[in-house]
Amino acid sequence: MAVPVEEVDARETRCGTARSPVVTGRDTSEGRQLRRWLTQLIVTERLIAAEADARGLTAADARRSRGA
After folding, report:
1. 40-50 pLDDT, tens digit each
2. CB atoms < 10 A from the CB of 29, how many?
3. Among 53, 23, 52, 56, which residue's Cα sits nearest to residue 38?
4. Whole-model pTM?
């Protein structure tokens, strides 16, 4: 499952990490680890969405099953 670099960039920006002093930059060990984690997160979200779609489930179904 391909994840475009631009999608990881956008997620990193949305997390606010592009300006965070905790992560010193993409070329650091911490920056690379963050980007690997974001990529794993994106892939996991896609897999969950695909499985939910295959089963005909929606977000409303998830809320009902939790009693929300």
Report:
1. 999 999 999 99
2. 8
3. 23
4. 0.75
